[in-house]
Amino acid sequence: MFRPEYSLQHATAAGEDARRERRLEHIRGLKLNVVSETDLEWDRARRAWNLAANQRPRHVAFPETADDVVKLVTFAGGEGLRVAPQGTGHGAGALGAIEDAVLMRPSRMRDIAIDPGQRRARVGAGVTWGEVQAAAAAHGLAGLAGTSPEIGVVGYTLGGGLGWLARRYGLACNGVLAIDVVTADGLLLRVDREHEPDLFWALRGGGGSFGIVTALEFALYPVRELYAGALFWPQERAAEILHAWQAWTAGVPDSVTSVGRLLNLPSLPKVSEGLRGRSFVLIEAACLATEGEGVELLRPLRERGPEIDTFAMLPPTGLGALHMDPVDPVPVSIDGWLLADLPSTAIDALVEAAGPESGSPLVSVELRHLGGALLDAAPEHGALASLDARFATATISLVPNADMAAAVERHSAVVRAALAPWEAERNYPNFAERSFSVSDFHSPATCERLGRVKAQYDPRDLIRSTHPIPTT
Ligand SMILES: Cc1cc2nc3c(=O)[nH]c(=O)nc-3n(C[C@H](O)[C@H](O)[C@H](O)COP(=O)(O)OP(=O)(O)OC[C@H]3O[C@@H](n4cnc5c(N)ncnc54)[C@H](O)[C@@H]3O)c2cc1C
After folding, report:
1. Model pTM greater than 0.90?
2. Is 306 left (phi over 0), alpha (psi -120 to 50) or beta?
């Protein structure tokens, strides 16, 4: 039987297939290491570290050099596609849909050069913090890494960068010295304080909206060893321990960065046997101190008789295991915000919302002590010049299915509401996974300036980033 609609559709589909095939041949001819939906490696190529993000970009590209990135940007622009750079996908939960974009994965751009004399590092866009810390430690130096060694240096730094040395040395973004970046019009620029200063300013804490970073240069700090570890108590003692920690933070020097934490460890084989399925209240800390000084600093907390005590002198590489972040890709939900203050009533509210009697499905609810160098908004700093808050909160949970995701979403909202009276005016980009507007992170003047930089360097909004900056 003659069915004209069918024939027409079929012909159109065949034409579309042929056109798609021609386009793919063209891309392959550019030698950009592109993977597309019909390729066997597609699922692995598009997968983010956060498995909860089911990313479906148009293509995935694995450039090896900055020149490859220039070609990629030119190609994407010509095809009417956007480019979404992604190092590891730890921040993929905040990225959203990327159907109209080429996902750029710099996992083959892994050069690391350490200049011990100048105390600086230069790393390719695909380098993770664990790799930098290992290379720097050989010279008695450390970078401003976060808690997980698996996180990408570039994504973490563009969004601020809050780590174990933060109260002494500030946010990682403000230790950046130079950036190699490919702009939306396909130019490879090296930006620093003297060259393209507005772009340099915007990239340091304003996120990845302004270009594709191919290499980053940043300061390293002399840290051969530090006194660091965690104290664990059964979670039934949450109120007592968190009150004691809060009082303790008021007196510690900037050389101490610490976290108070409620932890519900899952019953998974990967969790060590004594901890599996148990709930704890923890104090974790990194002290730039000798062992004797560290023991003295920790005394008021240790006197409360922790069940587990892991404090010891460690090289900076040892900090990567301290927070027990998951290493392999997992489906997670993250939320986080800043607190202007943390009085005793806030601790009580937190324990009620997430403590032992709360039925909380959240794996971890943490309070990070801020202050110190984080408050210093020096004029030479970038867009996120300081964190004007006393504590940061972050929640993280496994979300293997939709029911669990819904339960986690509901309980995160309960925790957030409980701490709402003390929430700071602004949020911290790296911990914010729900969709936020730029004004949640920055002052009106900074938003205005970021918008102008976006308009100058990417007026057609080719770069697809987390927490995108609208043009002004
Ligand atoms: C387990 C865990 C622990 C964490 N701990 C901390 C912590 O201690 N401190 C902290 O501050 N944050 C922390 N974070 C948040 C983390 O810093 C952010 O998710 C950050 O965005 C991760 O960077 P990434 O490159 O690994 O992630 P990606 O998802 O690869 O990148 C995030 C975004 O950065 C931008 N970006 C990445 N690469 C480039 C590039 N080459 N050019 C331009 N833009 C780029 C893009 O907008 C991208 O969407 C943690 C997150 C997780 C999941």
Report:
1. yes
2. beta
